[in-house]
Amino acid sequence: MLNLKGLWFGILQVFLSQQFASGSTVYVAIDRTTWRDTNLLMASIVWKKRAIPLYWERLKTLGNSHYDEQTTFLSIALSKLADYRVVVLGDREFCSVDLARWVGEQGHYFCLRQKKSTYVLIEDKPWLKLGQLGLTPGTKCFYNTVTMTQSKGFDKAHLAGKWKRRYRGFAPEEPWFLLTNLERLDDAVAAYQKRFDIEEMFRDFKLGGYRLEDCWANNKRFMAIVLLISIAYLCASSQGLRLKRKALQNYIARPETANRPYRRHSFFYVGLAAHRWVPFWHDCQQQIQRLMRLNRGKIKYYLKGQKAMEAVLHAL
Question: Are 99 and 175 members of one domain?
Answer without folding.
Answer: yes
